[in-house]
Automatic annotation (TrEMBL):
PROSITE patterns attached to this UniProt entry: PROKAR_LIPOPROTEIN (PS51257)
Record's protein name: Outer membrane efflux protein
Region (Disordered): 32-55
Coiled-coil regions listed in the entry: 395-422
Record flagged with keyword Calcium: no
Organism listed in the record: Gimesia panareensis
Family the UniProt entry places it in: Belongs to the outer membrane factor (OMF) (TC 1.B.17) family.
Signal sequence, renumbered to the chain: 1-29
Lineage top rank: taxon: Bacteria
GO molecular function, one term: efflux transmembrane transporter activity
Keywords: Coiled coil, Signal
SUPFAM superfamilies recorded: Outer membrane efflux proteins (OEP)
Length: 504
């Protein structure tokens, strides 16, 4: 395996980083809360407590196990529940998921961006740095008490404190949104790994089916050779069978090339060598979801990080309006000055010779340019409206996507059942009957070959339907953001095709 910089995306690190954002102070500004936000985001003053609550409720999709499997402790110390409940999946899939979470470059980048955003939330509400100054006079200022040779000054700007608090709240929600982006990408990467793994399963089944059909075809060619000696077949039958065998070999080459490409893509997602071997099980059992599209959509609204990110950004832009509104408030600057004076005058009873005078001062900014501040508020308002519409559009897209994926899963499941229970048994029965008829000279060899082609196509279609069902459920779980309960039914393995024995 190639070397990778050890950058662990850890759930504990997320919790620690999120805890740093607890400077989100409660504030009772006139800011409306979003009606589409999750319950923990209903009120802006709750931003302080949202950090720990949301961290504890972090979405984890890391392990695929049996229907009765308990949550497993992961290498980063967190626990995760199953998302798509499959009985007895092979171990390499769970290993791939853990590698993807720990090493995927996109996840590492988003985790680092979240740390950057959380760091910003810790300083945006702080006062500007104080200023110190010194002014040395080239020609001392002559006064009655002595020559003033220098002036020292210190100043501190104090913005409107309500504006600082609003900026802190906005930065907190933006950091939460980046964290939700990370969790959403984490779901996407794991779903992509599982999708690639299921595609590898389908390809392996297609290769195994093709190899089994090679043996079946070879047995047909052997029967044709035996029939030639009895005069009931011609050399053309053998040539036709050999041609089909060559076509099948070409199909196998295509499958193997495709497997290399899919395997390389999965390995890219987990950041390891492209030629690293990935194993798949001999049999895959997939069930349909037990929930309706509306129930899954409700799960998505509550658990999908991408939806939460849109809601958080809506909250952030709402605070942006408050920041723009408070920009009209004046900024206060306090200053202190000290003048260094020489003791170079005769003593006087009226004043102290050589005494260093000092002064205190205050300055206030005057927000005269109304058009500028109107434009700031307009900009913030338009950003908030755009964010709100983006949230609504996202909810609509997820609603449509869930309906589409659920329909696709049901179609694939019904197709697999149709292949398994009706079409494939009929095709196998037809092939066996024509094989026996050919051995008696009752049918032509090309009819047997046609039956063989049909059976091969149908068997490949069955495995393709199983793969499409698994992929649809994987994407459905990614969209829902959590485990989708499944029903308890699974297609059995296909019966083995029977070889035709040579005539005695």
């Amino acid at each position: 395996m190639k070397e990778h910089r050890s950058v662990k995306v850890r759930g504990l690190g997320l919790a620690l980083s999120a805890a740093l954002i607890t400077g989100c102070a409660s504030h009772s500004a006139n800011v409306q809360t979003s009606s589409t936000s999750a319950s923990e985001l209903e009120s802006v003053p709750a931003a302080r407590t949202t950090v720990s609550e949301e961290t504890e409720a972090e979405v984890e999709i890391l392990q695929t196990g049996g229907t009765d499997s308990a949550p497993e402790e992961l290498t980063d110390g967190t626990h995760s529940d199953v998302v798509v409940t499959h009985p007895a999946l092979s171990q390499p899939l769970s290993e791939l998921e853990l590698l993807a979470v720990e090493q995927n470059p996109q996840l590492v980048k988003l985790y680092q961006q979240y740390n950057a955003a959380s760091s910003r939330s810790r300083y945006v509400n702080k006062l500007p740095d104080p200023r110190l100054g010194a002014n040395v006079f080239g020609a001392p200022i002559q006064t009655a008490s002595g020559s003033q040779r220098a002036a020292l000054s210190a100043s501190q700007a104090i913005p409107w404190l309500g504006k600082l608090n609003a900026q802190e709240q906005q930065a907190c929600f933006e950091a939460f949104a980046v964290r939700a982006d990370y969790l959403s990408e984490r779901l996407r990467v794991i779903a992509a790994v599982r999708t690639g793994w299921y595609r590898l399963y389908v390809i392996d089944q297609q290769i195994e089916t093709a190899l089994a059909n090679q043996e079946l075809l070879q047995s047909l060619i052997d029967v044709a050779n035996a029939q030639i000696s009895t005069g009931s077949a011609t050399q053309g039958d053998v040539l036709l069978g050999t041609l089909e065998l060559s076509k099948l070999e070409e199909r196998l080459l295509t499958y193997r090339k495709l497997r290399v490409a899919v395997q390389a893509e999965v390995n890219r997602l987990v950041a390891r060598d492209a030629d690293t071997s990935i194993l798949t099980p001999k049999e895959l059992k997939i069930d349909l979801p037990a929930l309706s599209a509306q129930q899954i959509y409700q799960q998505a609204r509550e658990s999908q990080p991408e939806i939460q990110a849109a809601q958080l950004r809506t909250q952030a832009t709402r605070w942006g309006i408050e920041v723009a509104h408070l920009s009209r408030r004046p900024e206060l600057t306090l200053s202190a000055n000290y003048f260094v004076t020489d003791n170079n005058r005769p003593p006087s009873s009226l004043y102290k010779v050589g005494q260093d005078p000092w002064s205190l001062g205050a300055q206030v900014s005057i927000p005269l340019w109304k058009e500028k501040y109107d434009a700031l508020e307009d900009e913030a308002t338009w950003k908030h409206l755009a964010s709100t519409n983006s949230e609504s559009d996202l909810l609509d897209r997820y609603d449509a996507l869930i309906t589409e994926l659920l329909a696709e899963a049901r179609r694939a499941e019904e197709t697999a059942k149709l292949y398994r229970d009706t079409i494939l048994p009929q095709a196998q029965q037809t092939l066996r009957a024509d094989q026996e008829s050919y051995s008696r000279g009752a049918v032509e060899f090309d009819r047997v070959i046609r039956d063989y082609r049909n059976l091969l196509t149908l068997e490949l279609g069955y495995h393709q339907a199983i793969g499409e069902l698994a992929i649809a459920l994987t994407q459905l779980s990614r969209v829902a953001g959590q485990d989708v309960p499944l029903q308890a039914a699974a297609p059995p393995a296909l019966p083995e095709p029977q070889k035709l024995s040579e005539p005695e």
